[in-house]
Design brief:
Layout (H helix, E strand, L loop, with lengths): L2 H10 L7 H12 L6 E7 L12 E12 L2 E11 L9 E4 L5 E3 L15 H4 L8 H14 L3 E3 L2 H6 L13 H19 L5 H145 L14 H29 L4 H33 L4
Antiparallel strand pairs: 1-2, 2-3, 3-4, 5-6
Helix pairs in contact: 1-2, 6-7, 8-9
Length: 423
């Protein structure tokens, strides 16, 4: 049965199932497995115990294989998928053919053919499925078949035959014995009765002979039935013991397999936990090493921070000393300027135009920067300022000096180009 045909049945049952995709998936899994190779999907209402029926639901009808005493038989079943599937388990019936009958008092099959299994009783939508159900039925019914074949006469008449077996003593022997006794009796009385009495006696003797033959036949039949019943009881007891031994053997084998599997799983779990613990210990060692390294770096950072704070404090003190020195130098310069005469050196050379004034101011700034750098060098030699302050101030003044020189050269080039000669 192709998935398209099964899909058409599911589509035809639109609105019946809450999860049609799950129904389709489980049915396809069963039909594609060896257990469901002889099952065919169809639709049919499901009759309930209260006499009512459901709307048409998916029905998987056919046979599943079961192995009994080394021989594989096909067990006819009807598997209904109710409306609430997979929340509710499927409903399964054994459908014996005319030559078969359902065993009475079967543990897992009722007289109406309905199947009752622990797998169905413990059904859970998350873990149970149709293919495993078929495997369960095949395995369980292989050890305890739910059906048996009817005798040939029962198949023809529809009932169990009750015809008695042939008697142990034949009717001819009984008839000869009765006839001999009758002849002796008739010969003894032949002289005293007439012909009519002889006829009456012959009829009575015939009736007694037939009654005797019937009594013998019934006695032989009862003895044969008792013998067959005893033989059947002995056979059933032997079969039951054999099945019990096979069951115990299978149970022992399954117990050994389960024990071996549990031991294997426990060993695997132990190995996995041991590897995890080894990995955790390794990670713990790495974490401890990282913690020590971080603590060492934090300590070095705190020490470096202390050194930087100390250097910053010293640099601030040096800047304050330099500012005081500059203030004193300015006061001294102001005093010297006040003592000088009105004929200052700045008035000796006066620029004739704006470019000349710019060049004069830039030249004076360049000379002032040279002097400032010189005095900074003297202060460094005397220990009045630190090396960091000296370098910082020299870099700042060098930048200004570079800009002043570059500006001075640019102005000179511009004046030379305006006057018509190169610089």
């Amino acid at each position: 049965m192709s998935s398209e045909s099964l899909g058409s049945f599911i589509h035809r049952l639109s609105g019946v199932y809450r999860d049609p995709q799950r129904v389709l998936r489980d049915a396809e899994t069963l039909l594609s497995s060896p257990m469901g190779a002889h099952l065919r999907p169809t639709t049919e209402p499901l009759m309930l115990n209260n006499g009512t029926s459901t709307p048409p639901v998916l029905l998987l009808r056919g046979t599943i294989p079961m192995t009994y005493r080394g021989v594989t038989y096909n067990l006819p079943i009807d598997m209904y998928l109710p409306q609430k599937y997979p929340l509710c388990p499927p409903t399964v019936f054994i459908r014996p053919v005319a030559s078969m009958a359902i065993k009475e008092n079967h543990r897992h099959v009722g007289l109406d053919g309905r199947v009752y299994l622990p797998y169905l009783h413990e059904w859970r939508a998350e873990t149970h499925e149709l293919r495993e159900l078929a495997v369960w039925m095949s395995s369980l019914f292989g050890s305890e078949p739910p059906c048996y074949a009817k005798p040939v006469n029962a198949r023809q008449n529809g009932t169990t035959p009750h015809n008695p077996p042939p008697p142990y003593v034949s009717a001819t022997t009984a008839s000869s014995s009765a006839a001999s006794n009758t002849s002796s009796y008739m010969s003894a009385q032949s002289g005293s009765v007439n012909s009519s009495q002889a006829s009456t006696n012959n009829a009575a003797e015939e009736d007694r002979r037939k009654a005797f033959e019937k009594e013998i036949s019934e006695a032989n039949w009862a003895a044969e039935v008792a013998r067959q019943a005893a033989a059947e009881e002995a056979r059933l007891e032997a079969e039951q013991k054999r099945l019990q031994r096979e069951h115990e053997k299978k149970l022992s084998t399954m117990r050994a397999k389960a024990t071996s599997k549990v031991q294997y799983e426990m060993q695997q779990l132990y190995e996995g936990m041991k590897d995890e613990l080894r990995l955790e210990l390794k990670n713990q060692k790495q974490l401890d090493f990282g913690k020590e390294k971080i603590e060492r770096l934090l300590k070095e950072g705190r020490e470096r921070k202390g050194g930087l704070e100390k250097g910053n404090k010293e640099m601030k003190e040096s800047i304050e000393g330099l500012e005081k020195w500059l203030a004193a130098a300015k006061e001294q310069q102001s005093a010297e300027d006040a003592d000088q005469s009105e004929d200052k050196a700045d008035l000796i050379a006066l620029p004739a135009d704006t470019p000349s004034a710019q060049m004069l101011a830039l030249s004076a700034e360049n000379a002032a920067i040279e002097d400032c750098i010189y005095f900074l060098d003297r202060s460094l030699m005397r220990g009045n300022i630190s090396l960091e302050v000296f370098l910082k101030e020299v870099r700042r003044l060098s930048k200004r000096q570079f800009m002043a020189k570059a500006h001075l050269i640019k102005i000179a080039q511009t004046r030379a180009s305006n006057q018509g000669y190169s610089f």
